Amino acid sequence: MTYTSTVLDAPDARELADFYRRLLGWETEQDEPDWVVLRDPSGTARLSFQTEPEYRRPVWPGERDGQLVMAHLDIEVDDLDAEVARAVAEGAGIADFQPQDHVRVCLDPAGHPFCLYVG
């Protein structure tokens, strides 16, 4: 077995992939109408996106009857405040609930949470 990628569902795969392409500076490896694969510059990591017509935004933090978060991305940064500002400028939101002082939970345009942290 070989692990190849993490896949995020979204109402529009291309739109969400474009957000992460700008945020991470990754390259497009595959681009189809409902499927996009990004690759980091070293070629060792991939992040894929697929269009899911029945997609429901996850709720952060979890709520009893809401769509629960099944996974999130952790992204290490050098300057937390600067990278949060850049993520917001690219289209992310900042979650109202922040469980840790040294981590910022952000929400991508499709509502997936991702954490920015200083390593």
Automatic annotation (TrEMBL):
State the UniProt keywords alphabetically: Dioxygenase, Lyase, Oxidoreductase
Name of the protein: Catechol 2,3-dioxygenase-like lactoylglutathione lyase family enzyme
- List the PROSITE patterns: VOC
State if Ribosomal protein is listed as a keyword: no
Q: Which Gene3D superfamilies match?
A: 2,3-Dihydroxybiphenyl 1,2-Dioxygenase, domain 1
- Domain of life per record: Bacteria
Q: Which residues form the VOC domain?
A: 2-119
Species the sequence originates in: Actinophytocola algeriensis
For this UniProt entry, which residues form the secretion signal?
Answer: none
List the Pfam families hit by this protein, alphabetically.
Glyoxalase_6 (PF18029)
List the molecular function annotations (GO) for this entry. Answer: dioxygenase activity; lyase activity
